[in-house]
Amino acid sequence: MMMMEWKWLRFIRMAVMLLVLEGCRWCTTDACLEHERIALLHLKPFFNYQNQLQSWVEVKGSDCCKWERVECNTTTRRLIQLSLNSSRWFYTTDNRNLNAWYLNTSMFLPFEELKSLYLSGNAISGNLENEGFGKLSSTLSNLEILDLSENYLNDSILLSLSELSSLRYLNLSSNKFEGSGHLRGLNNLSNLKYLDLSWNRIESISNKGLNNLSNLKYLDLSFNNIESISNQGFQWLSRLTKLETLRLSGNSLKNSILLHMRNLSSLKTLSLSYNQLGGKLLHIQELNHLANLKYLDLSGNKIESISNKDGGRKLELTHLEELNLAGNHFNTSVFVSLNKLSNLKSLSIWDNGLKGSIDMKDLEAFINLRKQDMSYNELKDLVIHQDSNVSSSLEEIYLDYSTLNTNILQSIGVFASLKTLSLYHCGLIGPLPNQGWCDLKNLEVLDVSNNALEGMLPRCFSNLTSLRVLDVSRDHFQIPLSFAPFANLSNLKALLINENKMVMESSFYTSIPKFQLEVIRLPKCIASQQLSRKFPTFLYYQYDLRYVDLSHNNLSGTVPTWLLENNTKLEDLILKGNSFTGPLSLSSALISDVSSIDISENKLQGQIPTGICSTFPHLRELFLSKNALKVISHFV
Ligand SMILES: *[C@@H]1O[C@H](CO)[C@@H](O)[C@H](O)[C@H]1NC(C)=O
Ligand SMILES: *[C@@H]1O[C@H](CO)[C@@H](O)[C@H](O)[C@H]1NC(C)=O
Ligand SMILES: *[C@@H]1O[C@H](CO)[C@@H](O)[C@H](O)[C@H]1NC(C)=O
Ligand SMILES: *[C@@H]1O[C@H](CO)[C@@H](O)[C@H](O)[C@H]1NC(C)=O
Ligand SMILES: *[C@@H]1O[C@H](CO)[C@@H](O)[C@H](O)[C@H]1NC(C)=O
Ligand SMILES: *[C@@H]1O[C@H](CO)[C@@H](O)[C@H](O)[C@H]1NC(C)=O
Ligand SMILES: *[C@@H]1O[C@H](CO)[C@@H](O)[C@H](O)[C@H]1NC(C)=O
Ligand SMILES: *[C@@H]1O[C@H](CO)[C@@H](O)[C@H](O)[C@H]1NC(C)=O
Ligand SMILES: *[C@@H]1O[C@H](CO)[C@@H](O)[C@H](O)[C@H]1NC(C)=O
Ligand SMILES: *[C@@H]1O[C@H](CO)[C@@H](O)[C@H](O)[C@H]1NC(C)=O
Ligand SMILES: *[C@@H]1O[C@H](CO)[C@@H](O)[C@H](O)[C@H]1NC(C)=O
Ligand SMILES: *[C@@H]1O[C@H](CO)[C@@H](O)[C@H](O)[C@H]1NC(C)=O
């Protein structure tokens, strides 16, 4: 009897020890907390647009940490991120009215460890009464990221938001905030680093503005109606000394905004595009305080010059890499006024009405300049000096919509690093010169389309072996059917020669091209009857094509379905407006991923092949109109 008892005792003791050793595997599971799972299921009906929350199931024990749009802490198994963005349709089911609704924030209370809550794009109009965000403040003390962008929220929620003092990131972009007195509430969120208020209706930022947000690194107020940033002389902006990014585009700010920048010496990115800045911008001193600025966007204003009152002081932003002055009223003396910006890599000054010529000597100081966009001006010439310093770094030049002399191509060879040259619609006339520009051994993209260039491509052209993209469309070149001038361009991927003239060579010459094209655009090039039976032979050697346009070329014979056989990656095949005849016959072995075929306006006869859907499983568009095809009675 004693023995029995002792045995039992030993057994129970072992069981207890096992329990202790096994620990939590017995008392809990790896799954998420049951009350968080149930809370998610309560949220589901509000955010289940198009059944996006399929994995959120009402099965007891289902691990909600594995559900979509949910992220848990792997140790505590508690929710830390909930991504309910774009989870509701903006309109009522009849698509007539906005599907505005009110959020019950109490539904998030169970998620005590939540760090990130994404609720953008859900047509939220506000909170249910007494269920504002402030309710979360004491429980969700780790909440750092709150995204409420793209909803219908207005100032009435701001006071309750201001209680979420743990927030570091707050996105209120694209709502209906007006900034009446309540923006002051945001001023309480002193841990904020990122604040996005863009695309609202803010006219002014009242009282002390956001002067308390001294940790702010990123502030976006673009696309509101802000006229002035100061409030009764109080310069709140200059208190935000940690700001690195300030976006103020698309408001109604005047030049005086620059007076508020003095203290923002950490600023790296400043955007003031599309405001009411204009005339002479005299605030050189204020701008020069932004010693760390890398990116400055002043485009879309009416600025004529950047200088200080006595004209002596220049912009000296030694870290500035990108300057956008597009869409202003500068003249060609702007380059000299900026010549202390020695680190500039990109200068955009398109659409300024720059007249006459630019002396490239004026750009000599920009020894790091890589990209210069001078399109849409009234430029007539670039004065290029053979020994100029700028030539060694410049990689991209855009002069579209200028009025240039074709001679410019003879001297442009000094830009030895040039990779992109864009001379779209520049009034270039006559044949291309046979020297100078062919020295551009690094040229990858050349656009001389929409000019009046003519004749054969010069021999030196075949030296441009780095070319990847060549656009000579809408010129008057004579392109030999053999494509011999291009044959040597082993890196060529896109060749756009629409609306030039294809010609036969004087001597018979077939060359196997060194290139494998991805894009060929060749419409309206073969006009003469003599050529109409010939196919450009280089096409036989291509097997990497994705886009082929041979429309309106008077080509005859059977449809070149071999293009589909040779080029397994082909997506678009446009053969419209030729004279292809016969029935459209497809090899039974052919299966192609092509998504669009246009053979309209040809002379096809017979029936559409019945197996066409299995031959082209990814076909989205098939144009066969204006042929002589038989009406189809059954289409398999
Ligand atoms: C998960 O929770 C543990 C314990 O609270 C904490 O130490 C850890 O930092 C958390 N991890 C994450 C990614 O939040
Ligand atoms: C929701 O937001 C997260 C974080 O910004 C993003 O990665 C995700 O793509 C968004 N999802 C949808 C459906 O927009
Ligand atoms: C909000 O949600 C909580 C928790 O689900 C609930 O107790 C409360 O009644 C809701 N409030 C309203 C006004 O519906
Ligand atoms: C803000 O939105 C709430 C809820 O939709 C509405 O009742 C209130 O009138 C709005 N307030 C303003 C200033 O537009
Ligand atoms: C500001 O935050 C404090 C606590 O940090 C809070 O007591 C106060 O109510 C908040 N003020 C506003 C206007 O929300
Ligand atoms: C805020 O949200 C908008 C729209 O969802 C997004 O485009 C923007 O990048 C976000 N802002 C920040 C600072 O992340
Ligand atoms: C600014 O911050 C201080 C303390 O950091 C706080 O006492 C004050 O209420 C804040 N001001 C506003 C307008 O929130
Ligand atoms: C600039 O910052 C300093 C110190 O951070 C501050 O004392 C001063 O008032 C600020 N200037 C302006 C114009 O606000
Ligand atoms: C260019 O603009 C500056 C500043 O507005 C002006 O002083 C100068 O006369 C202008 N030069 C020309 C050639 O128009
Ligand atoms: C041009 O480059 C040379 C060598 O890099 C340098 O010595 C000279 O100062 C530069 N000239 C200008 C105007 O920057
Ligand atoms: C191509 O360049 C080489 C030197 O790199 C030169 O000798 C040759 O003449 C050039 N060819 C043509 C046709 O200009
Ligand atoms: C492409 O098709 C043509 C005509 O069938 C054939 O002569 C040529 O060898 C093919 N080229 C390749 C690369 O398969």
UniProtKB/TrEMBL annotation:
Residues 34-73 form the Leucine-rich repeat-containing N-terminal plant-type domain. Keywords: Leucine-rich repeat, Membrane, Repeat, Signal, Transmembrane, Transmembrane helix. The keyword Transmembrane applies. Residues 156-424 form the Disease resistance R13L4/SHOC-2-like LRR domain. It comes from the Eukaryota. Residues 1-31 form the signal peptide. The keyword Repeat applies. PANTHER family: LEUCINE-RICH REPEAT SERINE/THREONINE-PROTEIN KINASE 1 (PTHR48057). This is Uncharacterized protein.
